[in-house]
Amino acid sequence: MTNSPAIAVEYLSKTFGTTRALDGVSLQVTQGEIVALIGASGSGKSTLLRHISGLVAGDKSGGAVRVIGETVQNGGRIAGRVRRVRREVGMIFQQFNLVGRLTVLTNVLAGRLGAIPAWRGLLGLFTADERRAALRALARVGIAERAHQRASSLSGGQQQRAAIARALVQGAKVILADEPIASLDPESARRVMETLAQINREDGITVLVSLHQVGFALRYCRRVVALDRGRVVYDGPAAQLSVERLRAIYGSDTELDFSDAEAVLDRPAARAPLRGPALTHSYAGAAG
Predict the structure, then answer these.
(1) Considering the entire predicted model, what is its pTM?
(2) What is the C-alpha separation between 265 and 68, in angstroms, rounded?
(3) Cβ distance 61 to 217 under 8 Å?
(4) d(Cα 69, Cα 7) in Å, to the nearest integer?
(5) Percentages of the chain per state (helix, strand, coil), in multiples of 5
C-alpha cells in the first residue's frame, strides 16, 4: 500500500449567493485511511463530499480536486473524464438511494452499471459471475439472506448495508459516506460503522465519512477533520480531541449530545482497533 493521496483537495471554495459554503479547503486523505468529517449542520461537510465526487463544481477563482490521481475538477470546471473517476468512487447517502420495488440483489448489481455495456444494464442482464459477486458482497455486510426481498422491506440499517455492498460490487477504491447513520438507531448505526471499518481494514478501501454523531467518529476513525463555516479548523488524531475543543468546533449547535464522545475520550482502551496505514503526513490542527 502506497502513501500517495487517494483524495487531494487544494484551496477549494464554493459560494452560494452570499454564503461561503467552502472557504479555501485543503485536505489530503491517504490511500487506506478511514477519516471522519465532523462539524455543525451547515459547516460544509456534505458540500465538500459532493465536490470530491464531482457532482458540484467549485468557484472559478481556483481550487482543485483529485481522486486516485485523476483530476475531478479544477478552477470551477468539472473534468471531462470525471465519469471514469466516478467508477472508482462509491457514494453512500443518508437516505440509502435504493430502488424500493427492486430486490436487494438487483440494487447491489447496480454497482456494475458503470462497467458494463449500457444495453445490458437497461435489460438487467447480469452474468452469473456478477450475481455471485453481489451475493458475496451481501454476505460480507451480513444480509445475504435478504438478497431476494424487495429493498423497501429492509430496515434502515439493512438498506444502508446494501448500499455498502453495492459499492463493493462497483469495485470502489474510495467510499464517500454522507451522514450514513444519521437516521438510524444506535445499534443499526454501530453495524453500519463496523461494516465500513471492516472493508477499510480488509480491502484497503479509503473511507471519508461525514458524521454528526461525534462518539461514532471517535470510536471508528483515528483521524478527524472538522469543518466550521466552510473552513478546516481541526485535522488530526481523534485521540487528541477533547470535549472542550469539540464544543468550540460546534459552537451554538446545542442539539448535539457530547456524552458519547466524552465516554470514548475518557476510556481510550474501549475504542475499536486503529485501522488503515500508519499516518506519515503532518496534521494542521486549529488553535485552542
Answers:
(1) 0.88
(2) 33
(3) no
(4) 8
(5) 40, 25, 35
Q: Answer whether 183's CB lies under 8 Å from 21's CB.
A: no
What own/partner pairs with CB < 8 Å and gap ≥ 24 does 19-23 have? 20/229, 20/230, 21/47, 21/230, 22/47, 22/48, 22/51, 22/58, 22/230, 23/229, 23/230, 23/231
Percent of the chain with pLDDT over 90: 72
What does the pLDDT look like over 104-141, one tens digit per residue?
A: 999 999 999 988 888 888 888 899 999 999 999 999 99
**Average confidence (pLDDT) over 74-88:** 92
Which strand (E) or helix (H) includes residue 39? none
Please state the three-class secondary structure of 47-94 as a single string: HHHHHHCCCCCCCCCCCEEEECCEEEEECCEECCCHHHHHCCEEEECC
Indicate the SS3 state at residue 177: strand
**DSSP code at position 115:** G
Euclidean distance between CA atoms 163 and 93, whole angstroms? 8
- How far apart CA 77 and CA 58 sit, in angstroms, is 7
Q: Which three cell numbers stand for residue 11?
A: 484551496
> What band does 281 get if pLDDT is binned at 50, 70 and 90?
very low
To the nearest whole number, what is the mean pLDDT of the chain? Answer: 88
What is the pLDDT at residue 77?
96
